[in-house]
Amino acid sequence: MQFKLYNTVNELYRQEGIKEPLTVWWMFVPGLNLVVGLRQIHFLSQFWARKQGIEVKDNLAESIPFLSANA
Fold first, then answer.
1. What angle, 0 to 180 degrees and rounded to 10, lies between the N-to-C axes of helices 33-52 and 2-15?
2. CB 43: neighbour CB atoms within 10 A?
3. What is the DSSP secondary-structure string of 2-65?
4. What pLDDT, in 10s, does the model give residues 14-66?
5. Dihedral through CA 36, CA 40, CA 46, CA 51, nearest 10?
6. This prediction's pTM
7. Own/partner pairs, 34-40, CB within 8 angstroms, 24+ separation
8. Which of 12, 23, 38, 44 has the fewest CB atoms found within 10 Å of its own CB?
């Protein structure tokens, strides 16, 4: 399921001409599943917020910069 979400998020960014935020190899590192999932959710919500012209505050990603850093 994470691989499908990874592809979806990166494809949305690619279609808009924006740098893809997710790196596939992170999904294969044991123990990073939670981090990968949180990054996927963060970038998906940021994408749709940008499309709607709104700003979404992600307190978790702001407190752990690794979650919102572009790959």
1. 30
2. 26
3. HHHHHHHHHHHHHHTT------GGGGGSTT-HHHHHHHHHHHHHHHHHHHHT-----HHHHHSG
4. 999 999 988 877 667 777 778 878 888 899 999 999 999 999 888 888 888 77
5. 160
6. 0.79
7. 35/66, 35/67, 36/2, 36/6, 37/2, 37/5, 38/67, 39/67, 39/68, 40/2, 40/5, 40/6, 40/9
8. 23
